[in-house]
Amino acid sequence: MTKKEMKEKEQIEEVEEQIEEIQEEAKEEKPTKKEKEPTIYDIPGVGAATAEKLAEGGYADLMSIAVATPGELVDASGVTETTARKMINFCRNSLDMGFESGDKLMEKRARVMKIKTDVAAFDELMGGGFETGAITECFGQYGSAKTQIAHWLAVQVQKMDPDAVAIYIDTENTFRPERIIQFAKGVGLDPQKILQNIKVARAYNSDHQMLLAEKVGDLIRDQNLNVKLVIVDSLTAHFRAEFVGRGTLAERQQKLNKHMHALSKVADCHNVCVYVTNQVMAKPDQFFGDPTEAIGGNIVAHNSTFRIYLRKGKKGSRVAKLVDSPNLPDGEAVFMVETEKIVDL
Asked: What was the pLDDT predicted at 32?
């Protein structure tokens, strides 16, 4: 072999070594494929048809299935109870459902917004305004301004965020566009735009009311609406009319409890402020003090984050009394309802 041929052979071998080194480096530097997060379509034993039924029933992610009961999944998808339990166990094992430290929860609390009423005393009473991610219940006699506050909040939420949407579930035919127009003019906003961002649904019975509350989450997901406020006016009117007598009390409270849980889920999952109005009754065995008591008993009381008792004050004023809150002291605020605004006394 000549010197020239030997030199060419060495060059070829050198090039081959370089190619091998480059290939080895490429293998080492090749990023590992990120593990795909499981969806409801990845649950063992769940086909595409069952997954679609689950999604339609409001169980669109693993967390919603993990916290559901077997009976709820059976009703939503038609699977057997055994399959439903396996689905729940898989979802719970796939998710990190452990405890969280207080500082992590404090970080989550940072996304909570406050819908201000622009009534200094009222906002101070509520710690800065009506909280998102919570249910606020206002109860009181007729004419105590429960519905006025509902209309006012529907305008104020859009003053806070021009793209915000308010959903109004009307059970007593109390929503009035004319009132919205007055309030919008009072705060200097375009009445037409305000009305466009308020979605109103009339509920004709308790089942219809419950269905509308459950569909709020679908509205947010499917139509990508920036919902920041859900109003139910009033919460107990249909339940009170349909379930009469002590014999129906247990069934009424069960349905009411389910309805409140659906509203709570919407508030928590989508960071929405839920404002509900409630009727009252007079306690016949109350001989001293104010006999007024909210309808719904402990079911509504325990499911509400904040509870406000509204009553008429002197010279046409209204008094708001905070009777229950997880973090605020009890107190009162006095305000006036005017034609275009709600103002301090």
From this structure: 45
